[in-house]
Amino acid sequence: MKDCPNSLKEEAERLARKQLLNQEHVAPLTRFVEEISRQHPEKSIPYFDPLDGGTRAQCLFVLEAPGANAVESGFISRNNDDVSAKNFYEINIEAGIPREKTITWNIV
Length: 108
Fold this sequence. Notes:
This protein is α/β, with parallel strands linked by helices. The protein contains 4 helices and 4 strands, in the order ααββαβαβ. The longest helix is centred in the N-terminal third of the chain and has 13 residues, at 27-39.
């Protein structure tokens, strides 16, 4: 698993992350996303990134809206292939915030 900016531009990385969606710390959130998706099949609702802290996170970052790359990758992630995601990745590193203590979502 690659935890670096833009890593989700690679299909193999996206598929590997999808294999993690039922891990204990993210499974309830995965079910939440799937329920919203069932209620709104016309929308593309990205998953929470399983590399984040999931239900164990101490800090929730709420972003405005999923960008085109979140829809493409299927995840709200600091590893998406865009400048905002890269900046978010780098600012967390700079601030010394461990990834497992955070979770990122958006206003859907």
